[in-house]
C-alpha cells in the first residue's frame, strides 16, 4: 500500500500525462475533422459532377470507393480521438481508482495507431487507382489540341477524387502521428 506522500508525488506526473493525452486528443480531433471535411467536400463535388455527365468513367469508381472507405475509417478515428480526451480526463482525476491502467492506455493508443494505418492504406489504394486512371487518360490523348475521344478528357471532377484521397491520407497521418507520440509519452511516464 502506498503512503500519502507517495500518492501525492505520483499525482502530478499522472495529471501531467493526463493533460497531455487530453489536449492531444482534442487537437487531433479538430485537425482530423477539418481535413476530413475537405475530403468529404471534394468527394461530394466529384460525385455530383458525375451525375451531370452522360459519359461515366468507370475507372474512377474504384478510387471513389476507397475514398469512401477511408472516410468511414476516419469517422471511427474521430471517435477514437474523442476517447483519448476521456482517458486524459480520467487520468487528471484526483481519485486514483478512476485512472485507467498503463496497460489499458497503451492498448488503446496502439489500436489508434492501427486505425490510422488502416485508414492510410485504404486511402492510398484509392489515390493509387485514381492517379493510374488520370495517367491513362493523359497518355491516351493525342498531341495537339484536337481530342478525338471525349472519354479521355481529364475533367475537374476526376481531380476532385484524387484530392479527396490525398486529404484522407493527410487526415489519417495526423491521427497516426498523434497516437505514436502519445504512446511514446506514456512509455516515458
Automatic annotation (TrEMBL):
Keywords, ordered alphabetically: Membrane, Transmembrane, Transmembrane helix
The keyword Transmembrane is annotated on this UniProt entry: yes
InterPro entries: DUF3611
Domain of life: Bacteria
Keyword check for Membrane: yes
TM spans (from-to): 21-47, 59-80, 111-139, 159-183
Pfam families the UniProt entry points to: DUF3611
PANTHER family the UniProt entry points to: PROTEIN TIC 21, CHLOROPLASTIC (PTHR34548)
Name of the protein this chain belongs to: DUF3611 family protein
Organism annotation: Nostoc punctiforme (strain ATCC 29133 / PCC 73102)
Amino acid at each position: 500500500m502506498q503512503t500519502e506522500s507517495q500518492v501525492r508525488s505520483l499525482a502530478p506526473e499522472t495529471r501531467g500525462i493526463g493533460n497531455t493525452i487530453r489536449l492531444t486528443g482534442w487537437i487531433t480531433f479538430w485537425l482530423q475533422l477539418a481535413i476530413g471535411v475537405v475530403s468529404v467536400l471534394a468527394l461530394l463535388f466529384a460525385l455530383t459532377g458525375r451525375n451531370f455527365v452522360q459519359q461515366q468513367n468507370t475507372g474512377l469508381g474504384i478510387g471513389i470507393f476507397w475514398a469512401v472507405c477511408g472516410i468511414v475509417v476516419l469517422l471511427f478515428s474521430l471517435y477514437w480521438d474523442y476517447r483519448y480526451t476521456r482517458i486524459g480526463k480520467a487520468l487528471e482525476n484526483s481519485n486514483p481508482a478512476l485512472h485507467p491502467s498503463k496497460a489499458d492506455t497503451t492498448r488503446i493508443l496502439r489500436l489508434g495507431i492501427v486505425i490510422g494505418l488502416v485508414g492510410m492504406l485504404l486511402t492510398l489504394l484509392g489515390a493509387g487507382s485514381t492517379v493510374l486512371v488520370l495517367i491513362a487518360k493523359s497518355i491516351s490523348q493525342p498531341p495537339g489540341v484536337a481530342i478525338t475521344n471525349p472519354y479521355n478528357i481529364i475533367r475537374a471532377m476526376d481531380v476532385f477524387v484524387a484530392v479527396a484521397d490525398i486529404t484522407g491520407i493527410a487526415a489519417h497521418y495526423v491521427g497516426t502521428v498523434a497516437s505514436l507520440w502519445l504512446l511514446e509519452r506514456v512509455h516515458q511516464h
